[in-house]
Amino acid sequence: MTPPDPLTYATRFRGFLPVVVDVETGGFNPQTDALLEIAAVLIEMRSDGTLARGETHRYHVAPFPGANIETASLAVNGIDPHHPLRPAISEADALQRIFREVRTAIRQAECTRAVLVGHNSFFDLNFLNAAVQRTLTKRNPFHPFSSFDTATLGGVAFGQTVLMRACLAAGFEWDTGSAHSAAYDAERTADLFCIVCNQFQGVFDASRRRLAAMGPLQMEPDEGIDSPDSDLLP
After folding, report:
1. Class of CATH domain 9-214
2. Of 28, 114, 132, 142, which shows the fewest CB atoms inside 10 Å?
């Protein structure tokens, strides 16, 4: 029997590095509505293969010229986009700062690409991709369409799809006053992702042994989606 490969980030998620992203916005349309906050939380792997929340990177973002901002959205996230003391930077600057940290983490983990982890991840990924296109930002380390959705994971593991309820069901505290901040929501999403992955560790270990016993498999090519990009990493 062929033993499983050593457990690393590269083998845990098929070369993907999970990075939690949360955005606070001026609406629901990623093409027209403002990106107001973005946070990214790195995920660390312990020596036993379990996951833990790592460093948080969070930025206030200045609305792009002509951006739509819905009053109802501001009522939820509590952001005053024009407050004189709000330390907002441009979309391009915020993306470059976060992408730089993510590319470093990818290189250190010997992965090929990051995959976005989010609660209702399609929302965050759509806003991220729209901002990348709008700013013509290069070297985006995130997979363009794949993601890990903690609303789904929370439903499977705890029977709860709302972030607050899923976190409480998982045993985490919840601070309502801090919710709808990109950093706070991203950190709670990271905690939820880690605890679900850790609770399924035994299932993952059994699958690795099963696949190792099968020997080399003939796999369909992924048309370069998972392959390293010479323009992606420094």
Report:
1. alpha beta
2. 28
Strands 142-149 and 113-118 turn out to be parallel
CB 207 within 8 A of CB 200: no
Distances (CA, A) of 218 to 1, 193, 224: 18, 31, 16
In whole angstroms, give the CA distance from residue 24 to residue 186.
11
Q: Where are the domains of the chain?
A: 9-214
Q: What is the secondary structure of 142-204 as a DSSP string?
A: EEEEEEEEHHHHHHHHHS--SHHHHHHHHT----TTTTT-HHHHHHHHHHHHHHHHHHTHHHH
Token code pair at residue 202: 């035994």
Name the nearest CA neighbour of 117 among 169, 187, 175.
187
In single-letter form, the type of residue at position 41 comes to: V
User: What predicted TM-score, i.e. pTM, was given to this entire model?
Assistant: 0.90
Which residue of the set 57, 82, 83, 180 is catalytic? 180
pLDDT at residue 83, rounded to an integer: 94
Q: How far apart are CA 55 and CA 10, in angstroms?
A: 19
**140-174 confidence digits (pLDDT tens):** 999 999 999 999 999 999 999 999 999 999 999 99
How confident is the model over 119-146, as pLDDT tens digits?
A: 999 999 999 999 999 999 999 999 999 9
Per the annotation, the verdict on 60 as an active-site residue is: no
